[in-house]
Amino acid sequence: MELAILLFDRVTALDAVGPYEVLQRVPGMTVRFAATEPGVKSTEDGSLGIVADTLLEDVPTPDIVLVPGRVGELAMRDDERVLAWLRGAHETSQYTTSVCTGSLVLAAAGILQGLSATTHWLAMDELGRLGAIPVAERVVQHGKILTAAGVSSGIDMALMLAAQIAGDDVARAIQLSIEYDPQPPFDAGSPSSAPEHLVTQQRRRSRFET
Amino acid sequence: MELAILLFDRVTALDAVGPYEVLQRVPGMTVRFAATEPGVKSTEDGSLGIVADTLLEDVPTPDIVLVPGRVGELAMRDDERVLAWLRGAHETSQYTTSVCTGSLVLAAAGILQGLSATTHWLAMDELGRLGAIPVAERVVQHGKILTAAGVSSGIDMALMLAAQIAGDDVARAIQLSIEYDPQPPFDAGSPSSAPEHLVTQQRRRSRFET
């Protein structure tokens, strides 16, 4: 099975690496990191480089497509090569997926038109403007399309996906091997649980708020 | 503040990227990915390359040291340059930390001698053989030394660390921005919760069991 993860400059590393870490452990999985121009892509703060070793057009029919997010997603939404690749790959994919604002790219490609989907909590309205029906859930599945909420949610989505592909036992074994027994020291991981002043602060600073 | 993350071939990407994603968001944090030979390091399955852009000796006194784990950690334990760097950095660090089997490298450097510490659940005995006192907890703190359990635990450790460095509100804001509101589809993330046959299977396959 082939998983193609789209990479681009100013990507959020964990959006891509969380699901990668889960899905590379599914027996028989081959992971390709693909970009319009292969090479080192820098993450959002510029301090980490991750390598896209595959030309987008060299993985035309991946079984799974995964689009991560963050600032770099803006350029992807306007890149006709990326959108055409996504539309083509989606025709034959078993799963088309996104993490965080990666769903905005899927939406820009027309793949989420009229469908329920999710994204980073700050980008919900933007997702709606692009034609999807935003739903505030950790993972939203609509047939073969799975969209996940912000950044760390890709780990949960990937475990769901691993179970659908290879069975619950394989997904549980992967969870055990990455010791995914989360114990966050605070309960502030969503706008419904975080202190209100932090939610307000992040809304005020967000590029999606007008 | 300077965070130095040790990289090497056959590292587990999420061990490094989980904490990076949290700690790069601490105001004033500079992150350096350091190696004995800068360049692209391949992850454990070889499908992802991540870039170490800094020579180890060029970050002699980082405020925070972080050592990730996985198969590649074996070579690090025998690498005198790495061990000498760790000992030196630990002398002046504010925090010396590890994720997963990264603690075996700290132990090999003598930093965990006689101290309680943790690691991936499969490496507990090995950690003991290297002179530490293995404790089955998600994160173990001993003064300025923090060791985390397997792979995904680095995210929890980094949030604890962010709180200690910059205060609870900053840590909560980071948790909100990466939407870390974990909802694993299964409860199988530790050997105490996972089905026994999976625990047995992974023990049998482990390089640490003899």
Strand fraction band of chain A? 15-25%
Give the total of domains of chain A. 1
**Class derived from helix and strand content of chain A:** alpha/beta
At CATH level 3, the topology of chain A is Rossmann fold
CATH class of chain A equals Alpha Beta
Largest interface: A-B, 63 and 63 residues
The rough form of chain A would be described as globular
Q: What's the total count of β strands of chain A? A: 11
Radius of gyration of chain A: 16 Å
The DSSP helix count of chain A reads 8
CATH architecture of chain A: 3-Layer(aba) Sandwich
Major sheet description of chain A: 7 strands, mixed
Oligomer: homodimer
Unreliable stretches covering 5 or more consecutive residues of chain A:
none
Query: How would you state the average pLDDT of chain A, rounded?
Result: 97
SSE pattern of chain A: EHEEEEEHHEHEHEEEHHH
Helical content band of chain A: 25-40%
Alpha-carbon distance between the two ends of chain A: 42 Å
CATH superfamily of chain A: Class I glutamine amidotransferase (GATase) domain
Strand line-up of the largest beta sheet of chain A: 5-2-1-6-7-11-10
Structure write-up:
Two copies of one chain form a homodimer. With 210 residues, chain A is an alpha/beta fold. Chain A has one domain (2-182): Rossmann fold (3-Layer(aba) Sandwich), CATH 3.40.50.880. The first copy, chain A, has eight helices and eleven strands. Chain A has helices at 13-23, 73-77, 80-92, 102-108, 124-129, 153-166, 168-177, 196-205, and strands spanning 2-6, 30-35, 39-42, 49-52, 54-55, 64-67, 95-98, 116-117, 133-134, 139-142, 145-148. In chain A, the strands form three sheets. In chain A, strands 5-2-1-6-7-11-10 form a seven-stranded mixed β-sheet, sandwiched between helices. In chain A, a hairpin with a 2-residue loop joins strand 10 and strand 11. In chain A, helix 1 packs parallel to helix 6 (153-166) and helix 6 packs across helix 7 (168-177). The radius of gyration of chain A is 16 Å and the shape is globular. The mean pLDDT of chain A is 97. At the A-B interface, helix 1, strand 2, strand 4, helix 6 and helix 7 of A face helix 1, strand 2, strand 4, helix 6 and helix 7 of B.
